[in-house]
Amino acid sequence: MATEQRPFHLVVFGASGFTGQFVTEEVAREQADPERSSRLPWAVAGRCRERLQRVLERAALKLGRPTLLSEVGIIICDITNPASLDEMAKQATVVLNCVGPYRFYGEPVVKACVENGASCVDICGEPQFLELMKWKYHEKAAEKGVYIIGSSGFDSIPADLGVIYTRNKMNGTLTAVESFLTIHAGPEGLCIHDGTWKSAVYGFGDQSNLRKLRHASNLKPVPIIGPKLKRRWPISYCRELNVYSIPFLGADVSVVKRTQRYLHENLEESPVQYAAYVTVGGITSVIKLMFAGLFFLFFVRFGIGRQLLIKFPWLFSFGYFSKQGPTQKQVDASSFTLTFFGQGYSQGLSTDKNKPNMRICTQVKGPEAGYVATPIAMVQAAMTLLNDVSDLPKAGGVFTPGAAFSRTKLIDRLNKHGIEFSVISSSEV
């Protein structure tokens, strides 16, 4: 990790962006935590000093911290100016990178951090970017002793750490997990900023390059322990929750699989199979989502279709995404529940010829996913990098959250900050 000579423990890059402003507020809360025993010098970074100052002024007003502006450093840097990114990285122990879509703007930040000895966390939900950074920068980051941790927001800390939590709570060998995400909305409904929509459009439009990258990586298959986990139909009924569900198309499956590979190959832990779904309620919601999905999958295949999707997010997403993002009322009224159903074997029972005889159900619950839970997860990941150094992988590198944090106190930190992990039931069949 970086030395004491660096003036800032944390630097929020892209602090004036839509998500960056929420991350800035969360760092300010962490700085003021009454349980904090030491100072937390930090800074915001971006292109425009005036916009950064306005973000700090709004955070000061919201949090009742009139002196905040004088307590926080401001660094002027631009994604198109590598020298300015180098200067930012030289001043930081950990950079919190909030500038996306990461496929366009992420690599210069990773490069600057690796070359200048800063660790970095991001909130990327784009598997192609995450896997490419691992392929290009893992060895360089290890040489420098820095940690590059992708997908450290709602994508994909609840899922990745949730699987590890489920494994740790099972009295035996966990072999397979299915997760079901339920988003709870208030009376004014849901809305997501179109930055997330853009990342999805570009990601789905470039699936062929992700397949090429995975083929070029030439990784050995991870062994399957116990029966192979069967995929559900594109629309399936979850009896345990009494709702319909569809496959979750975010980064969670990619991230969890990479974590399980790391834990198996480096820590000799038994790998867990994983599938992710999102609940969609009743049959009316299913029909609405089917039409939205068909529109999306058709238009995303063509250049002009992608332009239309990006220009009119509200129309093509049936109102779920907008250029304005959610209102404060929508944020305050929203929450999420991620439920895990796991199966495995009791201690001492062979996994070769026997059927699984253990069942476990766990949950991760939290506040609004995109702009409350994501900043909490990101900031606590950064605090874990600062404080749990002896529990991180010995060398630096490019890691998933689960690979980096499986032996740290991150789950305890999240529990204290409103992202709660719990066991619902555990039994032998």
Characterization of this structure:
- This protein is of the alpha/beta class and 429 residues long.
- It has helices at 18-31, 49-63, 68-71, 82-91, 102-105, 107-116, 127-144, 157-169, 194-204, 207-217, 252-267, 283-299, 303-311, 313-316, 328-333, 369-387, 401-405, 410-416; strands at 8-13, 42-46, 73-76, 92-97, 119-122, 147-149, 172-184, 192-193, 236-238, 243-247, 273-281, 321-322, 335-346, 358-367, 397-399, 420-428.
- The chain is 45% helix and 22% strand.
- Strand 9 and strand 10 (243-247) form a beta hairpin.
- Helix 1 (18-31) crosses helix 2, helix 1 (18-31) packs across helix 16 and helix 4 (82-91) crosses helix 6 (107-116).
- The model has no long low-confidence stretch (mean pLDDT 93).
Précis, in short:
InterPro entries: NAD(P)-bd_dom_sf, Saccharopine_DH-like_oxidrdct, Sacchrp_dh_NADP-bd. The chain is of the alpha/beta class.
List keywords for this structure.
429 residues, alpha/beta, seven-stranded parallel β-sheet, seven-stranded mixed β-sheet, 18 helices
The span between the termini is 46 Å
Q: What's the total helix number?
A: 18
Proportion in helices:
40-55%
Largest sheet: 7 strands, parallel
Structural class comes to alpha/beta
Give me the side-by-side strand order of the main sheet. Answer: 3-2-1-4-5-6-15
Radius of gyration: 21 Å
